[in-house]
Amino acid sequence: MSEHAFHPLVKQLLDGDITLADLPAELRAEGEEAVRLLAGVDRRPVELPAVSRRVMREIASRPARSAWRRVMQPREIRLRVRPWLLAPALAIAAALILWIGHAAPVTQASFVTVRFVLVAPEAREVSLAGTFNQWDAHATPLVRTSPNGVWTATLTLPAGQHQYAFVVDGARWVPDPGAPAVDDGFGRRNSVLTL
Amino acid sequence: MRSETGAADGDIVRAVLAGDHERYALLVERYRDRYARYAARMLGSPDAAEDAVQDAFVRAYDQLAQCKDPDKFVGWFFLILRNRCFAERRRSRTETSLEAADEVAATDRTEGGTETAERRRALQLALLELTPDQREVFVLKHVEGLSYGEIAERLSTSVPSLKMRMHRAYDKLREQLRDHT
């Protein structure tokens, strides 16, 4: 045991398990030393009123930067739809999100126009459900814009983070496997879009 | 029905994820000062604590979609702040020690009690000589007043390992404070 080590009983005192009076006489001085150590503990509250403003100001600058990253790096995503749910066979779908806002500086934008594109040749109908439409599977239908099965919808959404999924034929919820996803708490995955 | 300021953490997190960024301010207001003292004692200075708490809130916002259980936002946020405090101490271990302790002493002088001020200053300096793990268990138990069981739950560890860490911290503090106690 090092010369600086407190006796195990004094450590119990420091832990609050026993009191000074419980210590044998020969440990009393060491116990008083431990009590003086704890007397230096500073429990006064600390207040940081400026933090709220600084955090919210920092956050306010976030969505615009995310939007730029989206614009500069468009992605193509392949989706696999299970054949027993979307007959007759495997469908390949791709979602491409395009930013088509006008020339206003992105840093001033509080809304961003996005176009969702899904290639689903076998689908009879496709819609978009998400946090922006209260997950209503009928609120935002995509329109079939080509014979090859390209479905599109253009939405203007507030800058920030949204969760969404495609709904194929009113029954099959398809997340975007190329985008960040979160568990929706009911065993499904939601795609996350940051604008 | 809950008032706006009394809304559950989980409801606020879900609203922010749905695009209502302004409501994040409610979470910042709610937990800002509650964790300020932890950060201040871990880092040794209110200024460093302010930076750490701010960074942790911004980081939590950026990663909010990864908060698996929005109803347990505060536990998740604490771990982000903790990582930030540990990283900060690795970066500037020696730079802030004296400055930090002087800051504590200066505050104390304005409140009277030079003996108390000196004890606080000495202990804060000694705390900064501990490993972050040792310092953290001391701060959570003796500054924040948590029991070993509560600390173990918060840090996902066991009570015996926390006690071992703490008892080493006691010995190290005794060595550091030999001339002060």
Characterise the protein shown here.
The complex is a heterodimer of chains A (195) and B (181). By secondary structure, chain A is α+β, with helices and mostly antiparallel strands. Chain A has 4 helices and 11 strands. Helices cover 21% and strands 30% of the residues of chain A. In chain A, a hairpin with a 3-residue loop joins strand 6 (143-146) and strand 7. The longest helix of chain A has 11 residues, at 28-38. Chain A is elongated and about 95 Å long. Residues 64-109 of chain A have low confidence and may be disordered. With 181 residues, chain B is an all-alpha fold. Helix content of chain B is 71%, strand content 0%. Chain B is elongated and about 55 Å long. Chains A and B meet through helix 1, helix 2, helix 3 and strand 8 of A and helix 2, helix 3, helix 4, helix 7 and helix 8 of B.
Largest sheet of chain A: 5 strands, antiparallel
| Residue fraction in strands of chain A | 25-35%
CA-CA gap between termini of chain B:
54 Å
Low-confidence stretches of chain A: 64-109
> Can you tell me the overall shape of chain B?
elongated
Q: DSSP helix count of chain B? A: 10
Helix content of chain B: over 70%
Structural class of chain B: mainly alpha
**Rg over C-alpha atoms of chain B, rounded to the nearest angstrom:** 18 Å
**Which structural class do you get from the secondary structure elements of chain A?**
alpha+beta
Average pLDDT figure of chain B: 86
Biggest sheet architecture of chain B? none
Which chains have the largest interface? A-B, 46 and 56 residues
Question: Topology of this protein?
Answer:
The complex is a heterodimer of chains A (195) and B (181).
Chain A: H1 8-15, H2 28-38, H3 50-60, H4 62-72, E1 77-81, E2 91-95, E3 98-99, E4 111-119, E5 126-130, E6 143-146, E7 150-158, E8 161-168, E9 172-174, E10 181-183, E11 189-194
Antiparallel strand pairs in A: 1-2, 3-4, 4-7, 5-8, 6-7, 8-9, 8-11, 10-11
Helix pairs in contact in A: 1-2
Chain B: H1 9-17, H2 24-31, H3 36-43, H4 46-62, H5 73-91, H6 97-111, H7 114-127, H8 132-143, H9 148-155, H10 159-176
Helix pairs in contact in B: 3-4, 3-8, 4-5, 6-7, 8-10
